[in-house]
Amino acid sequence: MDTRYIYLDGRVVPVDQAAISPFDIGLLRGYAVFDLLRTVSGKPFLLAEHLQRLRDSAEELRLTVPVTDGEIADVIDDLLERNGHEEATVRLVLTGGVSPDGLTFDPATPTFYIVTQDLHEPPPSLYADGGALLMHRRRREVPGAKTTNYLTMLQKRSDAEAIGAMDLLYHDGGRIYEAASASFYVVVDGVILAPKDDVLWGTVGTYVLETLCSDHEVEYRDVSVDEALAADEAFLTSTTRGVVPIVRLDDRLIGDGSPGPITRELIARWRSVLAGR
Amino acid sequence: MDTRYIYLDGRVVPVDQAAISPFDIGLLRGYAVFDLLRTVSGKPFLLAEHLQRLRDSAEELRLTVPVTDGEIADVIDDLLERNGHEEATVRLVLTGGVSPDGLTFDPATPTFYIVTQDLHEPPPSLYADGGALLMHRRRREVPGAKTTNYLTMLQKRSDAEAIGAMDLLYHDGGRIYEAASASFYVVVDGVILAPKDDVLWGTVGTYVLETLCSDHEVEYRDVSVDEALAADEAFLTSTTRGVVPIVRLDDRLIGDGSPGPITRELIARWRSVLAGR
User: Fold this and answer.
1) Which among A132, A162, A233, B180 could bridge A248 via Cys, Cβ 3.0 to 4.6 Å?
2) Which phi and psi angles does A45 have, rounded to 5°?
3) Chain segment A243-256, per-residue pLDDT in tens
4) Is pTM, for the whole model, over 0.95?
5) Cβ-count burial of B144 within 10 angstroms (0-12 exposed, 13-18 middle, 19+ buried)?
6) How would you classify the pairing of strands B233-238 and B242-249?
7) How close does chain A come to B20, measured CA to CA in Å?
8) Looking at the predicted structure, is the pLDDT value of residue A277 above 80?
9) Which three-class secondary structure state does DSSP give residue B215?
10) pLDDT interval class at A214 (50, 70, 90)
11) A102: distance to nearest CA of chain B, Å?
12) A-B interface: how many C-beta pairs under 8 angstroms?
């Protein structure tokens, strides 16, 4: 494990001394939210956006992040220095805290911890060749919150791998939502279509669409399964993976089955951001 | 806390020494199943059925309970003796174990723990007057598994309380499924209707329908929202609550709004079981 110290409930402690109670409602009832950010050149990237999303997630579950953004930033700096990662992911986890009866808990005493780990990026071939998604009927249970519920994603992981897919694409038969662990967009006639409702707001996705795409039109609206299958291009965005071309949904190729020009352009722009240019 | 010892990964330990890793996939990704049973006269009740359901839940998530039923029975006896409950609940929790990257885990090293606590039963008035449920559109994400995902139940708890409801009744607009923490049945013209598909198999529910109801007809089939609203009687079953009359769904009374004769009969029979008669 590349993590030697973590932050837990007010203290930075060696990882082998960090103990979560077996009565934690995050464990007993899955009542927890989290967020995950990455460093760029060793500094937290989009920190304010991730912390805002964490607070929004918490509010959706009637929880409150118990420390200020400034304190969190200091803790992250401390952990990054102690753990000595080259580039890191930073995971912030907030649960309802210890539940004496497995049902009730006091929102005033949540469990809040922060973990930094070495960042592992996907292989270059994924960006050159593109990836596939397995279509799966599901809608995020609490779309406004990044909860820890990834049951379906993990349960269907081997099904996805069996068809060479890197993740699931959630849909309801009529419209598409998002990938299980990423935002998902399609390009039709040069316009980027971004599913708007019932999906988690993507921090990297929003950054890419709003900051790196100013010369492309973006429509925030429902996107049908048919539109997605007939799109010219598709891509996903995520914190650890950036912009990834999606060239196949189940066994249906998107466009000609190779990464499209707008997607490639966004990948190049994202790489410039990572390189500090 | 009425629990002094718990079982965790092969050992019975004082509860304050029981530490779950912050990297547990049950916490990071909600990848966990559990079961909950109660004692009757100090002995585990329907133990074999609960352990079978736990193993079925585990299999659905491609996990395996790492110890035998006999070993689990011995551990429960040990915990009940050490913790000295009058009557107890016994909670068995199984997660995918520690995940080094927040995504992958080794099913060969799950986290498995067992907690006993004092049993708290609902007040007698609930059985005399009946309870209400708040209707909510949702289907259990993985119906074949009793997972730890109770996000919606906890998130909507205050909405339920606001209308005097004890729990949620999940439905899809067309048919009803189950309560968030209990099985749910209705009685129409003397026949008990039991939703069959896309619901968790209820251990106490099955016991009540198959062992205590042999003189009543039971139909296992889909039950529509309309049938539920027009039913003569309704009741839920759960481990800690037994048989509870449900006399209102949202603001719609079931029957005349008081517990019906078949429900009252089942409550009496359940009480006889608890009394060892």
Assistant:
1) A132
2) -105, 135
3) 999 999 999 999 99
4) yes
5) middle
6) antiparallel
7) 5
8) no
9) coil
10) confident
11) 9
12) 133
Structure tokens at A238: 């995520």
pLDDT category, A2, cuts 50, 70, 90? Answer: confident
Say how far apart CA A147 and CA A54 lie, in whole Å.
10
Which of B28, B36, B155 is facing A61, going by the closest CB pair? B155
How far is Cα of residue A250 from the mean position of the Cα atoms in its chain? Answer: 22
Residue A126 has what pLDDT? Answer: 98
Which residues in A lie closer than 8 A to residue B8 (C-beta atoms)? 22
Decide if B113 and A152 are in contact by the 8 Å CB cutoff: no
With CA atoms as reference, the chain A residue closest to B114 would be A22
CA A110 to chain centre: 22
B155–A142 CB contact, under 8 Å: yes
Measure CA B270 to chain center.
16
Segment among A219-228, B137-146, B256-265 with least mean pLDDT: B137-146
B79: left (phi over 0), alpha (psi -120 to 50) or beta: alpha
Helix (H) or strand (E) holding B103: none
Q: Do B29 and A61 touch (CB under 8 A)?
A: no
Task: Please state the ipTM of this predicted complex.
Answer: 0.96
Across the beta sheet with B88-95, the strand order is B11-14, B5-8, B111-118, B88-95, B32-40, B43-44
- Token pair recorded at residue B86: 């009058």
pLDDT digits (tens, 9 = 90+) for A151-176: 999 999 999 999 999 999 999 999 99
Give the whole-angstrom CA distance, residue B178 versus residue B238.
Answer: 11
**Contact between chains at B155 and A20 (C-beta distance less than 8 A):** no
Rounded (10°) angle between helices A261-274 and A203-211: 110
* Gap from B6 CA to chain A (nearest CA, Å): 9
